[in-house]
Amino acid sequence: MKLAVNFLTIGLVILSLPCGSYTEIPPKPPGSVTVLPPVKPAGGPQAFPDAENSNLPVFTMDYARIQVPFEVTLWVLLASFAKIGFHVYHKITFWVPESCLLISIGLIVGAIMHSVHEEPPAVLSYNVFFLFMLPPIVLESGYFMPTRPFFENVGTVLWFAVVGTLWNSIGIGMSLYAVCQIEAFEVQDINLQENMLFAAIISAVDPVAVLSVFEDVSVNEQLYIVVFGECLFNDAVTVVLYNMFIFVADMPVVEPVDVFLGVARFFVVGLGGMGFGVIFGFVASFTTRFTSNVREIEPLFIFMYSYLAYLVAELFSISSIMAIVTCALTMKYYVEENVSQRSCTTIRHVVKMLGTISETLIFFFLGVVTITTEHEWNWGYIMFTLLLALVWRGLGVLVLTQIINPFRTIPFNFKDQFILGYGGLRGAISFALVFTLPDSIGRKKLFVTTTICMIMFTVFIQGISIRPLIEFINVRRTNRNLETINVEIHSRLIEHTIAGVEDLCGQWSHYYWKDKFLKFNNRILRKILIRDNRAESSIVALYKKLELQNAMEILDTVSGDINAGSSIVSLQYEKKSSGKPKRKFVAADLMNMHDILSKNMYKIRQRTTAYTTKHSLPNDSRTKEILIRRHTSIRRSLRPGSFNGPVWNTRTYSTSQKYRHTYSFKGFTLFFTILYITVSPATQPHTITPPPPCFMVGTTHVEIIRSPTLRLTKHGGWNRKSQTWTHQTKGQISTGLMSIARVFWPKQVSSSYWCPLVVVSLQQFDHEGLVHTVSSEHLMLRCVR
Amino acid sequence: MGSTNSTLSKIPNVEELMQETGFTPAHIVRLYDRFEALDKEKTGHLRPQDFGAINRLAMNPIGDRIIGAFFSPGQETVDFHSFVRILAHFRPADKKRPKDPSMPEPVNSRTSKLKYPPLVFSLISVAFQLYDQDKDGKISRAELLQVLRSMLEMQVTEEQLESIADRTIQEADLDKDDAISFEEFRKSLEKVNIDHKMSIRFLR
Question: B121, B130, B152: which to substitute to probe chain A, counting the most A Cβ within 10 Å?
């Protein structure tokens, strides 16, 4: 398989060899296609009349016409094949990050091209890179950025991005200038401005490289978000420094005014970028408010608006990366409420796809151009650059963390700092910037070589070693022994308790501003940007679908089949008697138990792992889990004799909250589970339509009926004998009275309120085709808000 | 912060509370704001349904037990002082505070997590109470099963649950009475770093 892939790649390479750079389209006559078998050379309409009597050409070929798109497609395919090839052998991708593998393949291809004296397509030229290759990646990062941790850590992120990058550039620049003074290295002609310019280019941590490495390695959430945010937001500083030093390199003398202007420019660049992003984000959200009738092109708006934000920022030479990231952040929240479920999925998939393609291509071409550019090697300069970059980054992280730790709720320990410093990878952005330095800078080739070395060093050596290092550091902390079942259960209980108490106290790190923003959001923004009255929108449809599925499963249980899941542990079922003999547990049973526990225990919020993995989309399965758990409770109640007192918990909320017909996953928390509802056959609570005649015996028919309001009256109290809360609930739906027993409500109250309901009724057909509302006993009533 | 002082003055016996629990004034103010936000009817007491309004707590499998832990038996409301006292159990143990032998030991030190004084809450005792709903001082098999049911998802059958419960009791039960007493509970959690797991950082 791998051999076949290799053959294919070589074949594609050879095919694409004659293709030159595609930024210029040299008019090649069709006859110059030397590799392909010679065909009748008539290409297109003849410009001159034939002297001879030529026949109608049966088979023509016009390469020049399709050349550019053809080459683009081939290169993309080639890079993607390489990616497929890696995953054939799993172990490689575990230890070596994909970026390294892609660069290696790029190196090979570059070597082939170099030997045939062909020029590679200029993918990493300034315009192509910054206008086409970079936006998809940054859009993907911005779109999938976990917003809550980001806003909680925004101070740290900006601190590291701005101050950290400044520290790095100035430090590296000055030290390199000092190094240049040493005569032995023969680089005395590089003056201070050029050194600073170079330092500004290579000191910025690169989002592409960092993200591709960090998403394979799971670090804790705080660390991830700081590294993530830093590499995205340092673009503002890089842009300013780069422009400033380019401008200054031409001038003989630097005045203090220029430094001051530089600072002012920084604010313009940074805040301008964010401002543009937010504006475009709002405009995009506003547009999607009206797209309910053109669902097919909804995803288009997302892409167009973010790209527009990027381009407009580039127009004004302000930080385009920040613009597109803030646009994506702003847009995501409102747009996902406005668009249909399908559009939402489409958007996510396409964003991910574009980002992955871009990233693949960038790394691939990094490898290619490494071989094909002209190099100038200087041992001293290059080695010192590498060394200084590491040293300054390490120092920078240490110092900055010390300053900001007191302000953080969760301070960084040394292990975190190490990863933070070590994870400062450089990548293609530096290369693109250095590649387009003006030629007035004498030592441009040296800079290019040094940058490439820097990139290779960080991506290969740091990228490969970061995972073993993290594991090594971790191993010393955690206890790897298999814990007892006791500990596992109790620890999980404790974790739930902690999560519960945290929710109880509310998240208050930036409580004041967050609160204000949320109020503003709810009052003004949501009204403008989100379409109202989405009663029949995708989310409700999804819930209906989920309900149906779960209702079906419940019916299966009712008809007698209790074991839905496969029973892994084959234990003998012991009769519950007073004197139970002790069971012996074999090691295999224990392993199974651990297995069951780890797989099935309800997953609380992950506190220590990274949020999105590179190769999958974030999932919304949590709320579905809730749904499933609720139904489990119903199912367990149906088993005879398994009812052991008030286990089932219902949640009830203050009735003073208004009910609105807007649904959202997160708002959906009211969920009654009613155990036994006796309905006398004479009084059907709602009209059930007769089944269509095609239903067969034993099949089930599930309906979701929107019932009129249900009025519930609860009486409850503290049962002294059993020391629990018990209560009784009576419900009334239109005609007829239902008595609902044994619902656990932790309060003693006598109150009643109205709430709109969706009633799921489950009916089964007997051999006469009659409808038995067998599960009217097991009605699930759900309050919607 | 002017607002801190004005809020602090609204709370009776604030000094005593701060000393007993070790919270800083800023924390007390935040807790007070939270208390007021939950207490929608402004009665000065919280009832169980006020806690129920917290969405994420509702999704927690043992959410209602946590709520129940705030209410001592027989009590139906909790006031601000008890609220703060119970939350003080979850603060990280402050190693830097100098040991003042004359001061009574703060509520959440390690030893208080290990003792079982019947009147003073300790951290493990909080966890124990989450299991032991009928408050007889032992976790019986049935109670364990209840908790397991609420924590596990639907793929687990009743038999598997029972075998897990049996195993749990077997491991922990030293005096063979088929239930886990508080001492046995504490012993089984000896090796676990309670501080690390049960402390909530922002309450520092």
Answer: B152
